[in-house]
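Memo to structure team: turn this sequence into structure tokens by end of day. - J.P.
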Amino acid sequence: MQATWKTCARFWNSLTVLQKLVVGYLSYVLAGWLVLLLPICHEQPGLKALDHLFMAASAVSTTGLVTISTADSYSFLGELVLILLIQAGGLGYMTISSFLLLAASKPLSVERQQLNMAALSLPVDFDVSRFVRLVCWYTLVVESLGALALWPVFADRPFGEALWTCVFHSISAFCTAGFGLFNNSFEDYRGNVWLNGTLIVLSELGAMGFLVINDVWRSLRSRELHVTFTTRVILWSTAILTVAGTVLFWLEEPAVRMAPWQETWLASLFQVMTAQTTVGFNTVPIGALSASSVMLLTLMMLIGASPAGTGGGMKTTTISALWGHAVSVLRRRPVTSLLGRVIPEVRLRAAVANAVFYLGTLGLGVYLLTLVESSPFVDQFFECASALGTVGLSRGITGSLTPLGKCIIIALMLLGRAGPLVVGMSLVRPLPGTEPSSTEDVVV
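Reply from structure team:
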């Protein structure tokens, strides 16, 4: 046994920071899968091991795609395991354990600081210990308030069931996981303004990223406005995407125009939000959407949320940098600028590389899925975009995937959580002195 531990220690110490990040997420999936295999976690017999692996990967990657019903297949213990995996995956590798060490007045090792910086995409000059405390306390407060806000919606249920429903969906929404205890997501609550509003706020607070929250906290403490360039880009891009997407969805989608006008706007906002923040809930049947709406939601899923947050996708900052570069080329400017600021070349190169790796991974995933599945191509493309973007929206083909198809989607979900570019860089040994200490130099 001692020899085994020494071998594992030598293997771990031989890994780079980015390799440790990838291995860490895989270890979460493996641990969750082994626990979900226990019969005590099951509500019904006959569940397949591959489905449990799929659910564990979906939870850690905070995706929300499911091959079996969460509520019908798992006992309370199984649901608890899933929500713990979601919480760990949403906050980032080692964040929770680092917070517990800090709470016990123990300093973080250099390795832990590097892993937290990589997992949270922090700049190299950040105070990691302070930021980890802020992230964990902020998460606890927001999720608690979210569960409290959901209480009036589910208060008519038995107390224990109502409490668990509120807590489960609050954590799932904030971590942009998309896991729910209802088989049709929130389609039965499409006109419930309070529920929709609460889920929108929770999802946006998670998807905007902890860097924005850090700026807000600094402003509140110093009573002076501290808004970094990254925060400005995140807020502007999120607002533009949400407003434009909502209007386009409202104009083009027949499924929402048949409802009262207040409900059509609410459903349009919610569905665009759930794709852009990558939370993956839905209040309208995704399989019944028009082709134009499917295309719109796919674009939103590809763009995704913001860095250092709980959402996935290419990230709003990457798309903003590429947009700024395109505009600068059209205007024949010698440098790339955005919102009045020059974008450094290293960030622009990272944005281009991130987009290339992301779209290349998506293309490969779609190609492989078409080889093993017989469902319509549009549904397969949407499924792959949802998996890589860690969104969780589906046009109804997830449960009918072949074993190979499930493995492809599992790989896409895990790649989406760690980031295709980060995974790629973890496979290539860097030149001496060139390895980034955080993913700030990898993803804009």
